[in-house]
Design a protein that fits this description.
Helices cover about 10% and strands about 75% of the residues. It is mainly beta.
Length: about 180
């Protein structure tokens, strides 16, 4: 009896699975993030100087698209002149309705390059965060996107810093080219 139920459920899901496709969405745009927080150097806690990371960002989403839904992996990189490149990798879920798309991303790996001026030590701050987005399809296969991002970096790989708590908050505006194959 259980086998019959499983076969019936599989048979009912077959049309949904047959409409699934591979979602490929490269994007490029502009990001502006404000950085703030605290760090501890040799037992002394201090404030991270508030600064802004802004400039070009590029990346892409790769996943599965089923009807008006999509899930997959989101990768982005924002190179900076100062060497403080920001790299994010996360899992996203997306819903489309007419010409609008909404998505949320859990960023499970975020890394930003840092340099400590006192001894010219370089390394990375690591953490995680979330981002939410809204996209508007201008024409088929072209989407104008706006995203808000919140990242907390609480790990570091520097010798002089013993603890870090850095918050990055800001927006991303991009143009993407979503395809479902």
């Amino acid at each position: 009896m259980k086998t019959l139920r499983l076969l019936l459920i599989a048979f009912m899901l077959l049309p949904v699975i047959s409409h699934a496709g591979i979602l490929i969405e490269p994007y490029a745009g502009y990001t502006s993030l404000t950085s703030s927080g605290t760090l501890e150097i040799s037992g002394t806690e201090g404030e991270i100087e508030e600064s802004t990371l802004d400039g070009m960002v590029y990346g892409g989403r790769l996943g599965v698209g089923i009807s008006n839904f999509g899930i997959g992996v989101d990768y982005s990189q924002a190179p900076q002149d100062s060497g403080s490149d920001l790299t994010n990798i996360g899992a996203f879920g997306m819903v489309s309705f007419l010409n609008l798309r909404f998505w949320g991303t859990y960023i499970f790996s975020s890394e930003i390059g840092v340099e400590i001026d006192t001894n010219n030590e370089t390394g990375t701050f690591k953490g995680n965060g979330v981002k939410v987005g809204l996209g508007w399809s201008i024409v088929p296969f072209v989407s104008l996107n706006a995203e808000y991002m919140m990242i907390n970096n609480s790990k570091e790989d520097l010798n002089t810093i013993t603890a870090v708590d850095q918050d990055l908050k800001g927006f991303l505006v991009s143009l993407s080219f979503p395809f479902v194959l």
